[in-house]
Amino acid sequence: MNVKGYVRIASPLMLLAVILASCAPAAAPAPTPKPAAPAAKPAEKVPTAKPAATPEAKPAAPAATPKPAADQPRSGGILHISMYALVQHYDIHQNTSVAGMHPMQHAYNNVVAYDPLDPEKIVGDLAQSWDMSQDGTVFTFRLHPGVKWQDGKSFTSADARFTLERIQNPPRGTVVPRIRELVQVVKSVETPDAQTLKLTLKNPSASFLGSYATSWFAVFPKHVIEEKGDMKRTIMGTGPFRFKSDVPGSSFELTKNADYFKKGRPYLDGIRYYVLVDASTRFAAFRTKRVQLAAAPYGLMPEQLETVKSTMPQVTTAQYQGATWFGLYVMTTKQPWSDLRVRKAMSLAIDRQLGVKTVESTAGAVAGPIPPGSWSLPEDELLKMPGFRQPKDADRAEARKLLAEAGQANLKFSMLFRTGARYAAAAEFLKDQLGTIGVEMSLKPIEYTQLLDLVNRHDFDAAMMMGTWTIYDPDDLLLQFYRSDAVRNYGVYKDAEIDKLVDEQSRMLDQAKRKEMVLQTQRIILDRVPFVLSHWANYIAGWWPEVKNFKKPLSQFSYFRLEDVWLAQ
After folding, report:
1. Could you tell me the residue range of the domain that residue 493 belongs to?
2. Per-residue pLDDT reduced to its tens digit, 521-558
3. Is the peptide bond between 42 and the residue preceding it cis, with omega within 30 degrees of 0?
4. I need a surface site. Which of 47, 472, 515, 565 has the fewest CB within 10 A?
5. Which residues does 87 contact at the CB level (< 8 Å), separation at least 6?
6. Cα(481)–Cα(466) distance, integer angstroms
7. Has residue 364 been placed in a domain?
8. 514 to 19, 315, 392, 506, 521: CA distances (angstroms)
9. In CATH, what number is assigned to the domain containing residue 364?
10. What is the pLDDT of residues 477-486, one digit of tens each?
11. Average pLDDT of 201-212?
């Protein structure tokens, strides 16, 4: 079918409709700015009364005042943004954190992307249009002609093919891209000509287009990687901004790409990131307007939100609901963790409502494997389930009974966790909660890269980890963490029934049927406790009123290119 228009997500957080709603493409590359309002039509004069004296004439209605130029998009200015972590290298595909993606992605484009002005839509980026076959297994993208890489060489479909295959099959010895699982459904990639990209899927995928639109799929130049081997020290894209400078530990700067193929974009002359690792330092920079945009994930901290609302009412804030969870992973192949009674006891002990209140300063959510939204378990059902119900007396009594039955009434162990105040607070919370059922847990902080290495090699007993979702879709939230062969199944939990349900829902294009599969999968997960989920935390962004056209993305990974943002100053 020939698709026209764009793809709109069925609800603010539902990606299923990218398949069901006729996958359409690209809006025009450069939308025309809204013109000033026309003058109002003058009112007619009141006619003269006869034979009485002429009354005082009613004045004509004044013409509507045109909007001032300040309300219209205009070019110029440098946007200042805070950044919470150092940039390790520039290869987006080989990074595992937002800090490794946000600053670089301004130089790149995707084949398709989330519309920055309406994040519920998927539109063409390098693609000007696309078709999807009736069975949902073949996508044919027609790419914009005349697009140039920032070194002057022509962009072609070969670059898009090379990028996708590089993510599917990363070079030996490199980091596995975080969304690799979501594109393993691609069976073949063809390039019939320089402006056509054809993708054939192994089976229908309800989440494919939404996954492909995320910023992790920034298209890289084939010729540069073939020459240099990777993009770790090179930034060379087709995007709205060019790399300017990187002062390690201090700042990262980009400048306007005057040759950008979307005419009239970008508006900004440049973007400057400030590396501010300490949360209080970031907040001070934002309060004094040294930083105009405090972007997620750690733009504003939960405890700073009330201060912003009470002392800076002109600032706009937005929460990325349920973007991250905290949980306790245990190695399920070893005793005592292989005993379901032990895992259930620990889950029963946790007061998740208290965790949201104390650890997240209320900027969080109580939820199951999928956070609040169209795919999550209904709240009235969830809050009646063991581990989620209030008060906690019955849960904790049951937990102590289960430990006794398992011969673990005096369970003691140590838990690894990432260094940093945010993680320490969550770790202390878990320790206190397990203490309520007699479990003695000691805490061992460890630098993040070391922790990640240990859990990826399954060389640990217990560790507190965070998990983030890329797109709000069951494939992202279930495939990456709960399937037996999932990269982030750190505790090596294997369950054939969960695997079967996860696979079936992924292929189901009927929304109602898929929803029931997803709900049933979550119920089974909560009953079998592959790992102990604590609570969901929200990310918070804030921006000053002079920052125009910034719309909160669906997640911190969905799209953050800022080509439509402009400054009213």
Report:
1. 322-538
2. 999 999 999 999 999 988 899 999 999 999 887 777 77
3. no
4. 47
5. 99, 100, 103, 104, 246, 248, 252, 275
6. 11
7. yes
8. 13, 40, 33, 8, 11
9. 3.10.105.10
10. 887 789 998 8
11. 91
